[in-house]
Amino acid sequence: MQSGPREIVTPFRSIPLDVPEGMKPNEFFNSTENLNDLVNNNGLLVNAENLLLYRKALGHSTEFDCSIIYNTSQAILNPLGRPVRRTQVPDNVKHVWNRMNQIIIEYMLEQFPDPGQHLVLAGEASLDATWPLTSPGVPSIRMLHNHFIVFPMDDLRQAKLADPANPNLTDGGQHSLFEEYMHDVYREFICKALHLEVLRPVSDDAARLHLTGYPQGLPSWEIIGGVATLEDTRFWHEYDLVLKGFIDFYRTFFSQVSTRNAPILPDVYFPKQVESALLFNNDFLKTAKKVRDHCIRDAKYANAIRWQPAFKQLIYRNDEGKLIVTISQNSIGNAITELLGVVVNRKPDADAYGQREPALIARLLEVRRRLVEADLGEGIATAYWPKD
Question: What band does 26 get if pLDDT is binned at 50, 70 and 90?
């Protein structure tokens, strides 16, 4: 079978939401009113830390698909001031959030044990103010949230090949700014900055899914010990280190794009490595000059730059059944699945969704039961399921 990115069609039931006159949809989706609808119609569980587990109404998959959002919509009314990555979350919230992640990933791997039958993934994409609110593709909810998704491999095998030039697939391989011009610099910095014990670097071939050919050339690590390691706090510490290293690289690069010979940023996580591996690296600085010169000449190009860290970080199961962590700069699209070469084409089809809904909800309610049992929240009643 030909290897290449796949475009899968996922049915959904239209959401009866009325956007107030004069507001753009992405502006409304950042509002407290929209989050209230998300809780009341799709909410599964909530806890005192404001972490909300919910069904993805406009989902990626009808096999298994849910998210946890750090719902600060009523506590922080400014959508641009809300936490959008784990490094901005209070420690007590992050502790609970990590435990929720561990339980949900464990459930997915238990229910879908064969990598030849199901693609299992969990992770998040940046949702911060990296673009103006009116730009195409801006995230609809500017709060930290992650995704838990399972795709049947048969559906992916039968799906049509996606166009490799699809803008949603341009965050890896030859399309990526980091990969095209600074592959070696990026790898060297990540290796120097991060001292990891439970994450082991793996080759591109070991990380890549044979069916899709993705991820493409991204730094990747195997989780030594597999799913059991997710119960070890060291893993979540190292998972955060991967993000911190990426953020340092991204912010340092675009500080040089913005301002020639800019000084080292005052709040980087790894200042010694930034200074030695980045700010004294000719390839790094030459690439920054290329982008800066392009910005000066081309207003449209400059407007498309995401000046603040835009990332996708993922835990997924590879073809051999090993759990892999990878991270990439974000693309124009924001679906986490695209990092693995899966483009989701959502189609309104209430009948098709209704046929798959009972099995989907049964799995989501079982996950909720396990989270409640672990004292990680209380159930929410909706028109589709009871509180308990």
Answer: low
Q: Determine the residue type at 71.
A: N
User: Given the structure tokens 């929720």, which residue do they identify?
Assistant: 100
Radius of gyration of the chain (CA): 20
Give yes or no for a contact between 74 and 39, defined as CB atoms under 8 angstroms apart: no
Question: Which residues 6+ apart lie within 8 Å of 166 measured at CB?
Answer: 5, 7, 333, 343
Phi, psi of 90 (to 5 degrees): -55, 145
Question: In whole angstroms, what is the distance from residue 268 CA to residue 272 CA?
Answer: 10
d(C-alpha 123, C-alpha 372), whole Å: 22
Helix then strand count (H, E) for the chain reads 11, 13
Question: Can you tell me the distance from the alpha carbon of 311 to that of 330, in angstroms, rounded to the nearest whole number?
Answer: 4
pLDDT, tens digit, 9 for 90 and up, residues 107-138: 999 999 999 999 999 998 876 555 555 555 55
Query: Which residues are within 8 A (CB) of 13 and not within 5 positions of it... i.e. 6 or more apart?
Result: 57, 348, 350, 353, 354
Distance CA 190, CA 202 (A): 13
CA–centroid distance for 113 within its chain: 22
In the numeric block, which tokens belong to residue 107?
A: 């459930």
Closest CA to 243 of 221, 211, 215: 221
Residue 144 burial (C-beta neighbours within 10 Å; 0-12, 13-18, 19+): buried
Q: How far apart are CA 41 and CA 131, in angstroms?
A: 29
Q: Give the tokens for residue 65.
A: 């698909």
Give me the sheet containing 378-379, strands edge to edge. 199-202, 220-223, 323-329, 311-317, 118-125, 145-152, 64-70, 51-55, 43-46, 378-379
Q: How many residues does the chain have?
A: 388
**Is omega for the bond preceding 219 within 30 degrees of 0, making it cis?**
no
For residue 110, report the phi and psi dihedrals to the nearest 5 degrees. -70, -45
- DSSP states along 314-335: EEEE-TTS-EEEEEEE--SS--
> What six digits make up the tokens of 119?
């693609």
- Is there a cis peptide before residue 25, judged by omega within 30 degrees of 0? no
Tell me which residue of 125, 31, 21, 140 sits closest to 78, measured CA to CA: 31
pLDDT digits (tens, 9 = 90+) for 343-388: 999 999 999 999 999 999 999 999 999 999 999 999 999 999 999 8
Give yes or no for a contact between 214 and 340, defined as CB atoms under 8 angstroms apart: yes
